[in-house]
């Protein structure tokens, strides 16, 4: 916190710099190559998922439509952060203008929230597929699927606009230009303000509870109904399929929501900015990467479609 009187004495900065990722020169190049490799793997994995879903008619179902949209969100989500991070990781503190910082924050929060909403939508889809199998095709129409994705994006845009506007209208101290993070995220930027940020933190907690806690409880509720339905399935094969589908999605949800909760819902008094950076690395790199690996490795339909596509490509090349 900073005294309000200092607002009059300090001009508002127009540019910011991120904290140096590592001050050890020997670590800079290996870290750059590691994060570049992870970024390229995320792009490749998600692009393959989108291509497989749209190239095979057997995957033209609601769950794979949602999965392809999730993949697209992950591509844009990491692209908003990683290229700028890579440009700074070699030690040069390249300045970012205030409008650029605001744009990165807006798109990062929008895409992260859309990710969470899509996971909730996918949980509802699994609930309908397993608990209301006979009505599934009647309820989950293509029109409804598009409307659910559009609603997830629209709600995320609304929440992100409110948060970004609230933070960027804070009076910022001229002598505090370094953001103690590797991106313009919601938690670190308000600490550059020259005024009380309790209201901003309260708003952040409310939005975090709405996006993370409420959605997580809804997803857990759907998993309870799904589990009860699975136990009533007589077929061993059907029970195995239903359990595999639900457990894969629940693994992704736990990974995504636990990391988000640690960053956005922990009390600031118990938060280390260094820990925030480490957790942010997890949901910037590992979560998008593991999300798709989990869906690929645990999903027989996707694996079969991918195998057929590779075999078909190899056969066409040899002919």
TrEMBL record:
It is found in: Cell membrane. Residues 45-295 form the G-protein coupled receptors family 1 profile domain. The keyword Membrane applies. Pfam families: 7tm_4. Keywords: Cell membrane, G-protein coupled receptor, Membrane, Olfaction, Receptor, Sensory transduction, Transducer, Transmembrane, Transmembrane helix. It comes from the Eukaryota. It is a multi-pass membrane protein. The chain crosses the membrane at residues 31-53, 65-86, 106-124, 144-168, 202-229, 241-258, 278-297. The keyword Disulfide bond does not apply. Coiled coil: none annotated. Putative odorant or sperm cell receptor. Belongs to the G-protein coupled receptor 1 family. This is Olfactory receptor.
């Amino acid at each position: 916190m900073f005294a309000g009187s200092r607002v009059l004495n300090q001009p508002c900065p127009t540019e910011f710099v991120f904290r140096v990722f590592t001050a050890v020169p020997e670590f800079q190049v290996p870290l750059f190559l590691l994060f570049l490799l992870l970024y390229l793997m995320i792009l490749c994995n998600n692009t393959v998922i989108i291509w497989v879903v749209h190239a095979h008619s057997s995957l033209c179902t609601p769950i794979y439509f949602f999965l392809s949209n999730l993949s697209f969100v992950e591509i844009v989500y990491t692209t908003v952060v990683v290229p700028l991070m890579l440009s700074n990781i070699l030690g040069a503190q390249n300045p970012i203008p205030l409008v650029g910082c605001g744009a990165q924050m807006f798109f990062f929060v929008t895409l992260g929230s859309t990710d969470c909403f899509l996971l909730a939508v996918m949980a509802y889809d699994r609930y309908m597929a397993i608990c209301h199998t006979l009505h599934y095709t009647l309820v989950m129409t293509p029109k409804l699927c598009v409307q659910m994705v559009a609603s997830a994006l629209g709600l995320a845009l609304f929440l992100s606009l409110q948060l970004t506007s609230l933070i960027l209208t804070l009076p910022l101290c001229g002598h505090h230009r370094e953001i103690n993070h590797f991106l313009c995220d919601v938690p670190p930027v308000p600490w550059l303000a020259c005024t009380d940020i309790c209201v901003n933190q309260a708003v952040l907690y409310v939005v975090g509870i709405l996006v993370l806690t409420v959605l997580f409880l809804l997803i857990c509720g759907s998993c309870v109904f799904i589990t009860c339905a699975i136990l009533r399935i007589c077929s061993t094969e059907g029970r195995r399929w239903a359990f595999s589908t639900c457990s894969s999605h629940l693994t992704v949800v736990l990974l995504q929501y636990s990391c988000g909760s640690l960053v956005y819902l922990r009390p600031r008094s118990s938060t280390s900015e260094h820990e925030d950076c480490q957790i942010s690395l997890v949901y910037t790199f590992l979560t998008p990467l593991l999300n798709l690996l989990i869906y690929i490795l645990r999903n027989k339909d996707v694996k079969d479609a991918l195998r057929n596509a590779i075999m078909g490509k190899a056969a066409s090349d040899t002919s």
